[in-house]
Amino acid sequence: MARPRILISNDDGIHAPGIQALAAAASAMGDVTVVAPDRERSGAGHAISLYHPLRLTPHGEGRWAVDGTPTDAVYVGIHHVFRDGPPDLMLSGVNRGANLANDVTYSGTVSAAFEACLFGIPAVAISLTGGKPWDFEHAASVGVEVGRQVLAEGLPRGTLLNVNVPPGAPTDYRVTRLGRRSYGQAVDERRDPRGGRYYWIGGTEQDHDDIPGSDCNAVFDEGLISITPLHLDLSYDPLMAPLKGWRLEGLSQDTGDDA
Length: 259
Description:
6 helices; alpha/beta; Stationary-phase Survival Protein Sure Homolog, Chain: A; 24% helix; 13 strands; two-stranded antiparallel sheet
């Protein structure tokens, strides 16, 4: 039986220790190809480069760097590096820092996995919470075990799994939903040596709402690994009927109902 082909990417860059740990752990499960940004691209979200060319640089056997976003790296990986056929699994990470709650809308790690989802490839995003010393090896082993199960069980099309691993090498996990998290809302104004103003956005204070069953509660309050299923369809069905009741001046509504 052929070994599964695995695409690995991240948003911390191809030289980050997290992606190196993940590639090493995944190599026991399948044939690994790394296609990742050439540098740190944290917070890039699902940005894609449409107005400038991308360069693909080899970094040894089965390792490629792209001078673009995580989404660029996965797109080039799927459609060029894997042009003979798509990978069986995509793993993103291991990210240095949590990707919980509303983090997923900013996260390049999660967006890399979302990009694979768009093309029907099952994907898992893996992040390590906490701080130094970073134990990427344990988080990588957790991500690979989840990936192994994804290969065995499959995922519905358009879905991915977002995995967050607390520090301390935990082995207990919980299936969770997205919570709500805050970094504060500071804009720090500073001046450069020539007197010009520049700004850092986001505060250093972090907090989360107490939402039972959420990823934040599992990771921060209970020290559990969180596994959160995410879906590409952002439509909010409960608002459909109320919107159909609106009357917009000068416009007529096509409800889509058959006559």
